[in-house]
Design brief:
By secondary structure, the protein is mainly alpha-helical. It has 23 helices and eight strands. Among the domains are: 125 residues, no CATH class; 94 residues, no CATH class; 89 residues, no CATH class. Helix content is 50%, strand content 5%. The longest helix has 24 residues. The two termini are 21 Å apart.
C-alpha cells in the first residue's frame, strides 16, 4: 500500500468527483470538468484558496403579526440583523423571543446557503468540522453567529490559535460554564473538555485519576488557570465580548502533572489561558489527536494500527512541523494514493446527502427574493435536523455520534427510523412534493432542471448511455447490468429502447411543445428520483 505517496494515476472525472465530494458539499458536472482540466495539484490549491468571508445573514421574514411574529424595530427586511441590538428591548418579553427566533432561523438558513454556494473550496466542510469539534449550544443568534465566524475565519488555519479564541468565546464560556469559573467556586467543565475532547484526548486509564494523556489533577489546575473570565448579561451592549475579572482569578502558580512534564503555569492574569494552551500543545499527542479527528471527518471512521503508523503519525508530524497549521497536512492527505483508494467507505451525513443531491443536480436557491432564497435553505436545514444533524444543536458536547461512537460510526445515520426519511427527502428534492417535518407540511417545487442535465450528456438518446452516464455522475462508478435494466424500466416501463430514442428525438426537434416537454421531463424526474434513493447514492 502506498499510503501517503503522491497519487500518480490518471486524474479523471472519477478521481475529481471523489475529491470534490469529500472536501466540499457535492459537485456539479461542470465543477468536476473544471477540476480535471486544472489537474490534481491545481485543484487542491484552489480548494485551499483564502476566499473572502460571506456577507452576514439577513432578515428575510417580513414584519407582521399574521403568523404570530412581531415587528423587529431595529432591522428592515433584506438588511443584516447581526449589527442590531442583541436584546430587541420590546415591551413584551414574548415579542423579544419571537424576534430572536426569527434571527435564529435566518442564521440557520444562511449557514445552509454557505454550504450550497461553497463550490470550489474546502472552507465550509472545515467550518462544519470545527463546529462539530468545538461544540457549543446557546439560543442567542448573535453569539452563535460570532462563534461560527471564528470557525469560518480560522477554518483553514491554526489548530492552536482557534483553540485559544474558542476558549474565551462567550458562546463557549456560557455553554461549558466558564463564565461561572471563579477562585471561590471553581468549575471544571471546560478544563475537562479542553483536554478530553478538544486538544489531546483522554487515553486509557493508567491508575486512579491518571490517564494516558492527562490526570484529574491537571483538570483541577487548568480550571484554576481559566478562572476570572466572564460574559456580560444579554441586555448589556457589550455582551458579545468576554472580559477578564482579576479579582475572580486564582492567583499564584499552577503546576501540571507528570503528563505535562510538571510544567508550571506562572501567574499571568488575562493571558494565562494562552500559556496553558501552549503547554498542552507541546505534547505530540495533540497533533495526533486532531489528525485522527480530521481523518474520521474526511476519510474513514475506523483507524487501524496500520493507519495509525502510516497515515496518522506522519500527518501529525507535518502539523507539528508547521506549528499546528492544518492545511499542509491536509494537502498531503488529499494528494495521496491512500485518499484515492478510500472510496465508498463513508455513509453520507445528512448535510452531505442533501447537498450532494442539490449540487450534483443543479438545484439552487431561488433568486427571486431574499425571502425565497432563505425559505429554500431553511427547509434544507429542517431536513438535516430531522435526519439528526442539526447545526448549533448537537446531541452532546462530543458532537455527532457518527464521528466518535464505536462500532457504528457512520452507520448511525441509517437506522430503521432515519433511512426511510433520507430516501423520501432525496426523491422529493428531485420530483417535488410535500414533506412533513416536525408536524408541519412544506412544499418542495420540482426545481431540478432535469432537461438541462440530460442535454449535457452526449448520447442521451440512447437510454443505456443516458442511465450509465447519470449513474457515473451520481454514484461515481458504473452500475451493474441488472441495475441498468431495472432503471430502464423506470424510464420506459416495459418498452423497447427505441421508444425513448424516438420520444427524446421528437422533444429535441420541438422543445417548445408542452406535451412533449412535460412527458420527457416526468420520465427523467422519475428516473433520477429513483436513482437518488438507491443505496449507491447514500455512500461516497
Amino acid at each position: 500500500m502506498a499510503y501517503l505517496d503522491k497519487f500518480n494515476g490518471f486524474f479523471s472525472e472519477k478521481e475529481a468527483r471523489h475529491l470534490l465530494n469529500r472536501t466540499s458539499y457535492g459537485a456539479s458536472q461542470n465543477l468536476v470538468k473544471n477540476a480535471v482540466s486544472l489537474g490534481l495539484n491545481a485543484t487542491i490549491n484552489k480548494l485551499f484558496e483564502n476566499i473572502p468571508l460571506p456577507e452576514p445573514p439577513l432578515k428575510y421574514e417580513p414584519d407582521g403579526t399574521a403568523n404570530g411574529e412581531i415587528n423587529d424595530p431595529h432591522v428592515k427586511q433584506g438588511e443584516t440583523w447581526v449589527t442590531a441590538p442583541v436584546h430587541p428591548n420590546l415591551q413584551d418579553s414574548r415579542d423579544n423571543n419571537r424576534v430572536l427566533r426569527a434571527r435564529n432561523r435566518s442564521l440557520y438558513a444562511w449557514s445552509f446557503l454557505q454550504f450550497q454556494d461553497s463550490n470550489f473550496s474546502v472552507r465550509e466542510k472545515l467550518t462544519l468540522f470545527w463546529h462539530n469539534h468545538f461544540v457549543t449550544e446557546n439560543s442567542n443568534p448573535h453569539r452563535e453567529f460570532y462563534y461560527a465566524n471564528i470557525l469560518r475565519k480560522n477554518a483553514l488555519g491554526n489548530f492552536k490559535e482557534i483553540t485559544k479564541q474558542i476558549t474565551i468565546n462567550p458562546n463557549m464560556l456560557i455553554y461549558l460554564s466558564g463564565n461561572q469559573n471563579t477562585n471561590t467556586a471553581p468549575n471544571e467543565n471546560y478544563a475537562r473538555e479542553l483536554l478530553e475532547l478538544f486538544t489531546i484526548g483522554k487515553g486509557d486509564a493508567i491508575g486512579n485519576g491518571d490517564y494516558t494523556n492527562f490526570t484529574e489533577e491537571d483538570v483541577v489546575q487548568i480550571a484554576k488557570v481559566l478562572t476570572g473570565w466572564r460574559v456580560r448579561g444579554i441586555k448589556n451592549s457589550d455582551t458579545l465580548n468576554a472580559y477578564f475579572t482579576n479579582n475572580r482569578h486564582t492567583k499564584g502558580d499552577k503546576i501540571l502533572s507528570h503528563r505535562f512534564d510538571n510544567a508550571v503555569i506562572s501567574e499571568n492574569g488575562e493571558n494565562e489561558y494562552k500559556d496553558v494552551i501552549d503547554v498542552i500543545f507541546k505534547q505530540e499527542e495533540c497533533a495526533k489527536f486532531i489528525t485522527r479527528q480530521l481523518y474520521k471527518w474526511f476519510i474513514n471512521a475506523e483507524i487501524t494500527s496500520e493507519i495509525e503508523t502510516h497515515i496518522i503519525s506522519p500527518l501529525a508530524k507535518i502539523i507539528r512541523d508547521h506549528e499546528y497549521e492544518i492545511t499542509p497536512a491536509l494537502k498531503v492527505l488529499f494528494s495521496s494514493e491512500h485518499f484515492f483508494e478510500s472510496t465508498f467507505c463513508m455513509i453520507k451525513s445528512p448535510i452531505d446527502l442533501i447537498f450532494s443531491t442539490t449540487k450534483s443536480l443543479l438545484l439552487t436557491a431561488p433568486k427571486t427574493s431574499v425571502k425565497d432564497q432563505y425559505d429554500f435553505a431553511y427547509v434544507l436545514y429542517l431536513m438535516a435536523t430531522d435526519l439528526e444533524q442539526s447545526i448549533f444543536h448537537h446531541p452532546d458536547v462530543a458532537g455527532w455520534k457518527a464521528f466518535y461512537q464505536e462500532p457504528l460510526f457512520y452507520k448511525t445515520w441509517v437506522n430503521s427510523y432515519l433511512l426511510p426519511k433520507r430516501l423520501e427527502y432525496c426523491k422529493t428534492l428531485v420530483t417535488g412534493g410535500k414533506v412533513t417535518i416536525d408536524e408541519k407540511r412544506y412544499t418542495i417545487p420540482p426545481l431540478v432542471p432535469v432537461l438541462q442535465i440530460v442535454a449535457d450528456i452526449s448520447g442521451a438518446k440512447n437510454p443505456n448511455t443516458l442511465i450509465t452516464t447519470l449513474a457515473s455522475q451520481l454514484f461515481n462508478y458504473r452500475i451493474s447490468q441488472e441495475q441498468l435494466v431495472a432503471l430502464k424500466d423506470i424510464l420506459i416501463p416495459g418498452l423497447p429502447d427505441f421508444e425513448w430514442t424516438v420520444e427524446y428525438k421528437n422533444y429535441l426537434a420541438d422543445p417548445t411543445n408542452i406535451a412533449l416537454r412535460t412527458s420527457v421531463d416526468k420520465k427523467l424526474r422519475d428516473l433520477i428520483g429513483t436513482m437518488v434513493q438507491m443505496s449507491e447514492f447514500q455512500i461516497m
